[in-house]
Amino acid sequence: MTATPATTTPTPATATTTATATDAAPGAGAPAASVLDADFYGFQNLLSAREQETVLAVREFMEREVRPIADDYWERSDCPVHLFKPFAALGTVGAAWSETAGFASSAVFRGWIGMELARVDSSFCTFIGVSSGLAMSSIGLGGSAAQREQWLPPMARGDVIGAFGLTEPLSGSDTAKGLRTTATRHGDTWVLHGAKRWIGNATFADVVVVWAKDTADDQVKGFLVRRGTPGFTATKIERKQSLRIVQNADIVLDGVEVAESDRLQGIDSFRDLANVLRVTRDGVAWQSLGTMIGAYEAAVAYTAQREQFGHPIASYQLVQDKLATCLGNITASLAVCVRVSQLQDDGTQRDAHAAMAKSFVTTRMRETVALCREACGGNGITLDAGVARFFADAEAVYTFEGTRDMNNLIVGREITGHAAFA
């Protein structure tokens, strides 16, 4: 697909937002605009011309391929796995790594791509992000040169889908000390025992990065567990009411044998794992921003055509107040996301920077999707109004990659010099 380069000097006041799915013909997405009205201060201009061109290609893909099917897949709790490889063909998967980068790009660009995915469907963003973010970052940051060369190119092409197995049934935020999955070495083989929960993509992933505690030194290690390995089972978690497209799973590891060559050679402690989480926590902030924008765009479109007392409800003060508050939240969050990604590019980002971005943006997201739902009245709880899916999905995004409370404690430690963790 050939993308038209994005406008380099858009005027936010006259920018045309992408139309909602209800404006498009059935089964087809709306054409993508070069800029978004929700980017009120024109942050997209910080991207290079090549980055903006790729952003527009991703936006077009999401409008054409994902928006028309998102509600149906969400309602059925199914995942359009068939779209992973076509999406990977756009060249954004693995953009952070030298082995797979199609062109030199910034962390702001990579975050912006996640925002574009979540703007149409936060579940699709999670589905892609688990493999291209969490799994590939584990290998990119913690793998040896040989492991990076073995795994990153096929993952970037979409030939291999990854998952990330950290969270456990009995330890949510307490991953540092509460990790119960164990790894015991016998010669050149490691044997894993334990359980994981909420592992996205695990029911169909080709490889799962499993984090376990070494029984010899009590340190965290990372292992690449291939699909079909004896002793590994993944069972889909049913009855979810958030991110329903994401296929989260309970994993059981019952004597799973992994070769030493499939242990991430650069991971020797929880601190090494924390380096992965710091990078991917930025991505959750961008995803939260996209979730806000998706709900905001739907609310603006709905209130423009919904009439009460002979006028569109968008013409009433209380509705405009809600929408203006939402746009303020989006603009502030976009500024935070851009800056924390710039710090990543500069090599000056600290844990507290990423933690504050995740905490702040997800909190603004929760308020924003609620205001958008409220602006749509009773119809706001239906998928037809376009807000309900974002409203529900926001709850999961608000929680994962560290709750608001845990991230605020990371920031609090930076502020005071005292660790207040239990």
| Tally of structural domains | 3
Discrete helix count: 10
CATH architecture of the largest domain, by name, is: Orthogonal Bundle
Low-pLDDT segments: 1-28
CATH homologous superfamily of the largest domain - what is it? Acyl-CoA dehydrogenase/oxidase, N-terminal domain
Largest sheet data: 7 strands, mixed
Structural class per helix/strand content? Answer: alpha+beta
Helix content: 40-55%
Number of strands: 9
Highest-level CATH class of the largest domain: Mainly Alpha
Report the end-to-end length measured between terminal Cα atoms.
52 Å
Mean pLDDT: 90
Can you tell me the overall shape? globular
How much beta, percentage-wise? Answer: 5-15%
Radius of gyration: 21 Å
Subunit organisation of the chains = single chain
Order of helices and strands: HHHHHEEEEEEEHEEHHHH
Overview of this protein structure:
This protein is α+β, with helices and mostly antiparallel strands. The chain folds into 3 domains: 146 residues, Acyl-CoA dehydrogenase/oxidase, N-terminal domain (Butyryl-Coa Dehydrogenase, subunit A, domain 1), CATH 1.10.540.10; 101 residues, Butyryl-CoA Dehydrogenase, subunit A, domain 2, CATH 2.40.110.10; 143 residues, Up-down Bundle (Butyryl-CoA Dehydrogenase, subunit A, domain 3). The protein has 10 helices and 9 strands. Strands 1, 2, 3, 4, 5, 6 and 7 form a 7-stranded mixed beta sheet that branches. Strands 8-9 form a two-stranded antiparallel sheet. Strand 4 and strand 5 form a beta hairpin. Helix 3 packs antiparallel against helix 4, helix 6 runs antiparallel to helix 7 and helix 7 packs antiparallel against helix 8. The longest helix has 36 residues. The N terminus is likely disordered. Its cofactor is FAD.
